[in-house]
Amino acid sequence: MPLCLWIYSHAWINTPLVQLLPLGAVTLTLCSTLIPIGLGVFIRYKYNRVADYIVKVSLWSLLVTLVVLFIMTGTMLGPELLASIPTTVYVVAIFMPLAGYASGYGLATLFHLPPNCKRTVCLETGSQNVQLCTAILKLPASLYR
């Protein structure tokens, strides 16, 4: 959105608002998203067996990275800060994405979508809830500091 606003309006609007658009951040986000996806599509197209191996290795390395990040977060924030956050916040953070996955799959089933579309809707709604859960977890941590 900010990039489109800049493209369409920079020629005739010279206001401080146009200068404040985070174009560097948008460009970085686009590049960090599209380059790996493009590379993955190219590898899958040219070397299907190599792509399967890369996916398996990547998933295991992602699991290890997540565990390490969880441990580092716990040690950096301190156990007393993590213990001071109510357990209901953790319960919400765990079950909200699961509710998103379930509701996405349920609504896709309700609308009689094919199985591959059901999985897509399920993953999209659950993954969008992960961002909301991260914000929910960050809010109490900032309140208890």
From TrEMBL:
Assigned keywords, A-Z: Membrane, Symport, Transmembrane, Transmembrane helix, Transport
Transmembrane regions listed in the UniProt entry: 20-45, 57-77, 89-111
Any GO BP: bile acid and bile salt transport
Entry's Gene Ontology cellular component terms: membrane
Subcellular location: Membrane
Annotated membrane topology: Multi-pass membrane protein
One example GO MF annotation: bile acid:sodium symporter activity
Gene3D superfamilies attached to this UniProt entry: 1.20.1530.20
Similarity annotation: Belongs to the bile acid:sodium symporter (BASS) (TC 2.A.28) family.
Protein name: Solute carrier family 10 (sodium/bile acid cotransporter family), pseudogene
